[in-house]
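Thread amino acids onto this structure.
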């Protein structure tokens, strides 16, 4: 399913599903066949899988759903299909709220044996100190910070190196699959089908080697 969806082989996908294949089979990294079709921009396969009930809300090991992957690969046709299915899914029901019945929870009443404790009255100085500690400090000191952790380890002043990539050679147009197949077909028509084998030798070289082998056999005999 994963290979068929990645290659866009819709007929193979239909055949597998009709014979009991798992439409949401997850790989080691948590990827699904739907995610494979999204990655290779196979709009027809994506639409067919969704129509057959593929789950778009499943997450891979990185926590990405099919919609996240569609937006990352940025094929507008696929994004529209997946987004439409995502919007059709009803929001999840909060079981905690559903289990709660109406009415406010009862307050715990004090038993007769319990004594009422009075809270200590804070002085004016303590109030000022509390206000200063809660309002005067900037947000940096009220929450954890990566910069503070780095400075504590002594790596905040580390010098940064440039990671700009410089290619060794200029980019040249690459041959397409159609061009490569045409070249292979031309070579087969010209030299024969044996050209695809590693032990292939041109006709002249093959003839010379055959003659040498025959002469060696004659000398041995």
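Threaded sequence (221 positions):
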């Amino acid at each position: 399913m994963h290979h068929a969806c990645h290659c866009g082989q819709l007929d193979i996908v239909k055949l597998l599903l009709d014979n009991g294949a798992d439409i949401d089979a997850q790989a080691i990294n948590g990827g699904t066949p739907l995610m494979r079709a999204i990655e290779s921009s196979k709009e027809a396969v994506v639409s067919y899988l969704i129509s057959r009930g593929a789950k778009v809300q499943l997450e891979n090991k990185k926590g990405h759903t099919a919609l996240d992957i569609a937006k990352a690969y940025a094929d507008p046709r696929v994004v529209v299909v997946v987004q439409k299915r995502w919007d059709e899914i009803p929001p999840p029901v909060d079981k905690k709220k559903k289990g709660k019945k109406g009415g406010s929870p009862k307050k715990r009443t004090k038993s007769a044996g319990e004594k009422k404790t009075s809270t200590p009255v804070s002085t004016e100085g303590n109030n000022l100190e509390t206000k200063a500690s809660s309002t005067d400090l900037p947000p940096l000191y009220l929450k954890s910070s990566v910069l503070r952790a780095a400075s504590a380890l002594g790596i905040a002043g580390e010098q940064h190196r440039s990671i700009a990539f410089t290619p060794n050679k200029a980019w040249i147009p690459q041959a397409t699959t159609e061009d490569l197949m045409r070249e292979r077909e031309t070579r087969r028509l010209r030299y024969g089908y044996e050209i695809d084998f590693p032990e292939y030798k041109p006709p002249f070289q093959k003839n010379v080697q055959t003659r040498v082998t025959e002469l060696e056999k004659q000398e041995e005999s």
